Amino acid sequence: MLDLTRDPAADPLRLYRYRDGIYAVDLVNAAIVHLDFFTWLATHPSDKATICRELQLSERPVDVMLTLFAANGFIRAEQGIFHVTEVAREHLVAGSPWFLGPYFASLKDRPVALDMVKVLRSGKPANWGSSKSEKEWSKAMEEPDFAQRFTAAMDCRGIYLGRAVAKALDLRGRARLLDIAGGSGIYACAITAAHPHLRATVFEKSPVDQVAAKLITERGHADKVSVLAGDMFSEALPAGFDVHLFSNVLHDWDTPVVAQLLAKSYAALPPGGLLVIHDMHVNADKTGPLPVAEYSVILMHSTEGKCYSLGELDELFQAIGFRDLKHTPTAADRSIVTAVKPG
């Protein structure tokens, strides 16, 4: 049985960053070549709403794009107005002797770059991996074969990341954890392995619930981790749990859906209950960190979500009723954000 309390000897950070940031270059390409964004912004410093209106783009992907460019130092914001920086003025604005537009244009027909333009304009996700044989991610997850492949991909990631989450959590005095949309159950397994007094339940819809049950049993954790079939969108969250975990879940959905899920969590948790969000989080002023801004691009492309900033989460928490936001780094540019339902 795999020991989920053991850390690897070597740090896989660079490998995670290769995969997590794989689509960022295509968003840069789309902005330079297809939108000539920096040339426009150089003569039209604007806020986000004006950028969306004037360039006929959608708010969610533009938010991701602006965060990426700010993290790279291509733009800066002054009282909500975005301006190009010197590096962009010299190298990304047409007419400059150092303009790199033609260099990027040689790769303008990459499928993902073309998809980026569509997503920026429509606000709707593209097919998974830009493959014509795959559906949009949320639809593809309803197919057993895709669900099994995708869950396996997230499971191997979670063996490392789950251990880091478990180490970052203080769960003294807590009894039962609900892992909402918990995929393979790897995070629930890792947390209960590190906190033996705890019991956990993975709340997942079909067909992923069956994949989770099989993997949890194979790992030898079925005595501590159970699986409950259900749909977090169409059903209330089950009662009886004093910890709720959303691991790599909220980033798949737009703000209204995230607010709905957090409200369901608040309703189901007892007073004093703990909310845990494990993800990659943008800083409050949306200027980075760069690896998080890059990862947000693949979410913008393939899902209805993005990486949320600490400021956005705090705003949602305050509106719903959660208090005491705490942010703790874990591993591979990830972190946990915790909050409490007041007692």
Describe the structure.
By secondary structure, the chain is α/β, with parallel strands linked by helices. It has two domains: 22-124, Arc Repressor Mutant, subunit A, CATH 1.10.10; 140-340, Rossmann fold, CATH 3.40.50.150. 46% of the residues lie in helices and 14% in strands. The protein contains 15 helices and nine strands. Strands 5-4-3-6-7-9-8 form a seven-stranded mixed sheet, with helices on both faces. Strands 1-2 form a two-stranded antiparallel sheet.
CATH topology of the largest domain: Rossmann fold
Q: Name the beta content range.
A: 5-15%
* Category from helices, strands and their pairing: alpha/beta
Largest sheet: 7 strands, mixed
| Gross morphology | elongated
Class of the largest domain, according to the CATH hierarchy?
Alpha Beta
| Uncertain residue ranges | none
Distance between the termini: 39 Å
| CATH structural architecture of the largest domain | 3-Layer(aba) Sandwich
Percent range for helical residues?
40-55%
What would CATH call the homologous superfamily of the largest domain? Vaccinia Virus protein VP39
